[in-house]
Amino acid sequence: MKNVVKEYEIGNSISEIAEKFSISENEVRSYLKTQINWYSKSVSDLSVEDQHNVLSMYNNKFSVLEISDFYQIPAPSIIKLLTGLGVERVYHKGRKFELLKQIPFNKKQQEFIVGTMLGDGCIRCSGKLPRLCLVHSKKHEQYFHWKISQLDKFFNLWREQVHPRKNSTLLYTETLQHSGLKKFYDMFYVNGIKLVPKNLDMYMTPYCLAVWFLDDGTLNSGTNHRIHTNCFKYEDQLELQSLLKRCFDLNCKIIQRADGQYILSFKRKETVKLSNIIDPYVVNCMRYKLRLTLDRSSTTTCQTPEKDDDIV
Predict the structure, then answer these.
(1) Element housing 204 (H / E)
(2) Over pLDDT 90: what percentage of the chain?
(3) Which pLDDT tens digit goes with each residue over 33-46?
(4) Can you count the helices (H) and strands (E) in the chain?
(5) d(Cα 1, Cα 6) in Å, to the nearest integer?
(6) Where are the alpha helices (DSSP H) in 39-140?
(7) Contact 226, 256 (CB under 8 A)
(8) CA gyration radius for the chain?
(9) Per-residue pLDDT for 286 more than 70?
(10) Strand 224-227 vs strand 217-220: parallel, antiparallel, or unpaired?
């Protein structure tokens, strides 16, 4: 896949790259978002002529995503521009999305959902079927797009929003409504409160653990891992502690913070063990969270804050 970036940098289009490597355009787009600064412009950078050309392209059957790729501007911004130029309906759900709602999630996709739900994800029920929602800080934009790529065809367009309390920019997306999410909603929520289910062993693979850790894990002072499970009650912490022991023979202790909430903490040897378990699945922009050896000189000097400013 590394050759995809080279092809893009020499000027080949998404469709040309997809055809050359016999993969879908969505796969090309999703991979590039994890490797480069994908959107380098905004609508305000477009000239009047460019804006009229956007409208012309759309009227000539170019999709919003194709226009987004061409101008390197986020698709939601293109939609807003088209709306401002008098286009009444920019996209529609159509039969494709109705069919997607019924396509079952495969094993890896279910592991991703569980890892995300243990981390920063949530499932929202606002209609007939639930949606999986992701919110991450803009400073982790590449990681955000990597997560979208893991469940790509089921996600709708994403958008930026300003956090009302933390004065930061967040990236938000949600899946289309999907029948397969009903099972996970029932597993993780009781009376609207998020908890840790008792039956996660079948989902808890190294990949699932990686998704969970990349959401909530840190490398504290460059020495030991912590997983910020503070959104869960103490009884749930005990279940998570037992789950890690059962599935990976990982030992951790439950620490109570000054605010009364709990996190999981790992000693140095267990930290190295955890890092090596998830290492094959960690996207490059998040590798600063790993400690693959007890030799401190070989670990990264880049530190992570006590907890990222994502919303749980």
Answers:
(1) none
(2) 50
(3) 777 766 667 888 88
(4) 13, 10
(5) 9
(6) 48-59, 64-71, 75-84, 94-100, 107-118
(7) no
(8) 21
(9) yes
(10) antiparallel
* Beta strands 253-256 and 217-220, pairing class: unpaired
Q: Return the SS3 of 265.
A: strand
65 found inside a domain = yes
Question: Is 27 part of any domain?
Answer: yes
Going across the sheet that includes 224-227, the strands are: 217-220, 224-227, 262-265, 253-256
Per-residue pLDDT reduced to its tens digit, 73-105? 877 788 888 888 888 765 544 445 667 777 899
> Per the domain annotation, does 186 fall within a domain?
no
At residue 183's C-alpha, the angle toward residues 180 and 186, to 5°, is 145
Is residue 188 domain-resident? Answer: no
pLDDT at 248: 98
The DSSP symbol for 286 reads: G
Task: State the residue range of the domain holding 44.
Answer: 2-84
* Residue at 82: amino acid letter: L
**Alpha-carbon gap, residue 226 to 254, rounded angstroms:** 10
Domain count, the chain: 1
- 3-class SS at 190? strand
Instruction: Give the contacts of 242 (CB within 8 A, at least 6 positions apart).
Output: none
Tokens 């396509």 locate to: 103
- Give the tens place of pLDDT for each residue, 218-268: 999 889 999 999 999 999 999 999 999 999 999 999 999 999 999 999 999
Residue 119 half-sphere exposure toward CB, CA atoms < 13 A = 29
Mean pLDDT of 262-289: 96
∠240-142-107 over CA atoms, to 5°? 45
Which of 282, 198, 289 has the alpha carbon at shortest distance from 246? Answer: 198
